[in-house]
């Protein structure tokens, strides 16, 4: 195949000028093509993602931003009028004795619930990781409280804790111990709901820990055994370091869950929140309890949102770097 | 680069600005204007009742069938259709439903003695005096103390419907075993009888006080009034820390310390019904449940007298309110409906099925007395009914403060006078922050 090339110094003919696009025209055409492709991509994106984005905007971001706006109002629930008060609701929550009490209760409940669930969950996972008869049934039994209704769990435990007729009172009486005033004393109230929350959630921790334990290479443990490392040494030198991703995952999720998912148990077992008003329960009590403080409640909700936001950010940015991965 | 950053900033500002505008439009009015009172300006002689109204109810005392029966009667008599909305399982849920938007849908709503006042402050309730008159409902037939519960600033904002009072319950079998003759008439006798029962080892406790979730400020109002005290004297909040109030609470605290009384863990009804204790005070509405659960003979009596006053009985339960958001036509139909539901015949029927006391003086309860003679005590006791103290029913959060304080004081060795002074300070702060601007 031969091609005839024009001399480089010869001027192009008129027809050649019309048929050969200039660089500017080519660039414009490329731009138009890119725009068409981009428009097409955007159309496809909006077609598939648009409905979801609209739903997320309507049901997550709109309420979230609305709540932030309400948190700047002195507003009684149901009132058609409200007074703008700026940051007063936030200042009140961070400085009033009742607000500080909420932080104290939340800290104790979270620490008790997270440590209790994780320590007991790990111990149970270690047992369930052994080849013992009825292991599958035991795993099911341990996990089942996690999927039970919190309301049902709370009602059953109320019968157990009843100091007059409860099973626990009878067991304690057999040892000559009087039942504590579980429902009447604020401190015992808090201990009671922590016990119930841990009982309900340790199955989740046990199952996650079990998955972590089963991913530990057996050759490492066998090598350690050959090197005469005892069970305790193997646990602290091999098992626990290799479980750190699981530990930190559970730590973060348990902190978040204990701050947000305990409402059903708290509401049923201690309806007025005597000593158990954690931050999530306080949001409810302030708005829908006797006070009807919708604006103040909204401010507490915003504080909870940012608290969880920070915990999650710390987990993503800091904790993961410090965790040992295989 | 700088331009694009600026552009993003401006876009962000614009989005937030738009969001603020939208939120301001959708949220509460921050201009400070209150809702208009339609009722006062309406010439009711020109208004025709609506053909259809909506009734929001939690079916107090499991009364769904009875309410439907009464509604059918009403529709037959007037031709007005009534749409029923089950607005919650209890008074608190119904109140929440109404406060969070239900007011736009309901014409008549069931609200309790402790929840109607915030709705009044929200401007959500219509005064019923003129409405009842326009609907030819004679309000003079209601039990006065029950109707006066809804009186504020010269207007009534509800009509007594599913009403109750506390009643004194005692275990007749325990009393016979202890050689006690009849119910105690004074609080001193309550202490004496309870001590005898404990000394004779007949029951663990002679008397059960209510825990914080069983409205102890309601159950103990009779004791406090009996000593000449109270939770407040209208808006004089110093009454709660007066010597008389403190003496009454000290008497109750000494009962727990001496062992003749205790504070129930979850419900005084359960402790009494199961024989853990021999006496308690609980709502008349609990009579049916107690008779069903108890395997002993249950006695009922008037609330005990105190050293300073005869056994006064606090009122309780719920009333029927008319929504201010409804049109005048709907409000007039609603008033006719309210009149029907609270007539002497309707109240006798409703009371017989639920255990609530009839709110109409002319309700014929003779057939109920034959089956449940204990109920007669509850109805006769209405002569001693007294409207509740402002602090408990009107001051947001005060009942909760009282409930937690009473539970703490009775179940521990806390200094009563110090605690009541703290409660008074708390009441004053609540009044200043929650009510003062609107009431003054």
TrEMBL record, chain A:
<keyword id="KW-1003">Cell membrane</keyword>
<feature type="transmembrane region" description="Helical">
    <location>
        <begin position="140"/>
        <end position="160"/>
    </location>
</feature>
<protein>
    <submittedName>
        <fullName>Sugar ABC transporter permease</fullName>
    </submittedName>
</protein>
<keyword id="KW-0812">Transmembrane</keyword>
<keyword id="KW-1133">Transmembrane helix</keyword>
<dbReference type="InterPro" id="IPR035906">
    <property type="entry name" value="MetI-like_sf"/>
</dbReference>
<feature type="domain" description="ABC transmembrane type-1">
    <location>
        <begin position="103"/>
        <end position="315"/>
    </location>
</feature>
<dbReference type="GO" id="GO:0055085">
    <property type="term" value="P:transmembrane transport"/>
</dbReference>
<feature type="region of interest" description="Disordered">
    <location>
        <begin position="1"/>
        <end position="24"/>
    </location>
</feature>
<feature type="transmembrane region" description="Helical">
    <location>
        <begin position="234"/>
        <end position="257"/>
    </location>
</feature>
<keyword id="KW-0472">Membrane</keyword>
<feature type="transmembrane region" description="Helical">
    <location>
        <begin position="42"/>
        <end position="65"/>
    </location>
</feature>
<feature type="compositionally biased region" description="Low complexity">
    <location>
        <begin position="1"/>
        <end position="16"/>
    </location>
</feature>
<dbReference type="InterPro" id="IPR051393">
    <property type="entry name" value="ABC_transporter_permease"/>
</dbReference>
<feature type="transmembrane region" description="Helical">
    <location>
        <begin position="294"/>
        <end position="316"/>
    </location>
</feature>
<feature type="transmembrane region" description="Helical">
    <location>
        <begin position="190"/>
        <end position="213"/>
    </location>
</feature>
<dbReference type="Pfam" id="PF00528">
    <property type="entry name" value="BPD_transp_1"/>
</dbReference>
<keyword id="KW-0813">Transport</keyword>
<feature type="transmembrane region" description="Helical">
    <location>
        <begin position="102"/>
        <end position="128"/>
    </location>
</feature>
<comment type="similarity">
    <text>Belongs to the binding-protein-dependent transport system permease family.</text>
</comment>
<dbReference type="GO" id="GO:0005886">
    <property type="term" value="C:plasma membrane"/>
</dbReference>
<dbReference type="InterPro" id="IPR000515">
    <property type="entry name" value="MetI-like"/>
</dbReference>
Automatic annotation (TrEMBL), chain B:
<protein>
    <submittedName>
        <fullName>ABC transporter substrate-binding protein</fullName>
    </submittedName>
</protein>
<feature type="signal peptide">
    <location>
        <begin position="1"/>
        <end position="19"/>
    </location>
</feature>
<dbReference type="InterPro" id="IPR006059">
    <property type="entry name" value="SBP"/>
</dbReference>
<keyword id="KW-0732">Signal</keyword>
<dbReference type="Pfam" id="PF13416">
    <property type="entry name" value="SBP_bac_8"/>
</dbReference>
<dbReference type="InterPro" id="IPR050490">
    <property type="entry name" value="Bact_solute-bd_prot1"/>
</dbReference>
